[in-house]
Design goal:
The complex is a heterodimer.
Chain A: E1 2-6, E2 9-11, E3 16-22, E4 30-37, E5 44-50, E6 55-57, E7 65-70, E8 75-80, E9 89-97, E10 106-109, E11 113-118
Parallel strand pairs in A: 2-11
Antiparallel strand pairs in A: 1-3, 3-8, 4-5, 4-9, 5-6, 7-8, 9-10, 9-11
Chain B: E1 4-7, E2 10-13, E3 19-25, E4 33-38, E5 45-49, E6 53-54, E7 62-67, E8 70-75, E9 85-90, E10 97-98, E11 102-106
Parallel strand pairs in B: 2-11
Antiparallel strand pairs in B: 1-3, 3-8, 4-5, 4-9, 5-6, 7-8, 9-10, 9-11
The chains are: A mainly beta, B mainly beta.
Chain lengths: ~120, ~110
């Protein structure tokens, strides 16, 4: 189970900060992802991290992103700097089991956090 | 970047109908294709991974097929709980990408 939290209302230029806690199951052997969905739109993958801190980022967001992991708490976090209205979305955390083959998929999702950026 | 294109974008159907949704990738993605169902106000839910393998707990009326660039999701007999939005997603490259979604509505 994934439970996520973070500030839901931001002003333009502020930093979005979200955390996702993993309850039950192993923290290793998976990649931990952030995915967002603007209002009424589709899904956009943001970034992923594994238990050892290996990361991958969406190049379109990379310059503003930091993703980190705290294995002592089984948590991972996202920071997105200098937000604008275009970053308004529901942000989800999601688990991807690292098979290294076509079975890789987002098999468990957090409940979502609505983030609104006002100007 | 790999672009995923779904068709149709929306679909009206009745309970008991057989429905097919198509997903096309802008380049070959082998078998790295997954399908998700999303209901309003909820996170997506994994239905099918690796083209055709049903996630645990998913009813057998859902099936997937395809390879390379062209894939389909079929629901053999629509149930009331199946009316939702469906997304395909490629995991062939780490810049994961989703289709734009197909909204399945009650006729």
């Amino acid at each position: 189970q994934l439970q996520q939290w973070g500030a839901g209302l931001l002003k333009a230029s502020e930093t979005l900060s979200l955390t996702c806690a993993v309850y039950g199951g192993s923290f290793s052997g998976h990649y931990w992802n952030w995915i967002r969905q603007p209002p009424g739109k589709g899904l956009e993958w943001i970034a992923k991290i594994n238990h050892s801190g290996r990361t991958d980022y969406n190049p379109s967001l990379k310059s503003r992103l930091t993703i980190s992991v705290d294995t002592s708490k089984n948590q991972f976090s996202l920071k997105l700097r200098s937000v604008t209205a275009a970053d308004t979305a529901v942000y989800y955390c999601a688990r991807q089991t690292d098979y290294g083959d076509p079975r890789d998929a987002f098999n468990i999702w957090g409940q979502g956090t609505v983030v609104t950026v006002s100007s | 970047d790999i672009q995923m294109t779904q068709s149709p974008s929306s679909l009206s159907a009745s309970v008991g109908d057989r429905v097919t949704i198509t997903c096309r990738a802008s380049q070959t993605i082998s078998s790295y294709l997954n399908w998700y169902q999303q209901k309003p106000g909820k996170p997506p839910n994994l239905l099918i991974y690796a083209v055709s393998t049903l996630q645990s707990g998913v009813p057998s009326r859902f099936s997937g097929s395809g390879s390379g660039t062209d894939f389909t999701l079929t629901i053999s007999s629509l149930q009331p709980e199946d009316f939702a939005t469906y997304y395909c997603q490629q995991s062939y490259t780490t810049l994961y990408s989703f289709g734009q979604g197909t909204k399945l509505e009650i006729k």
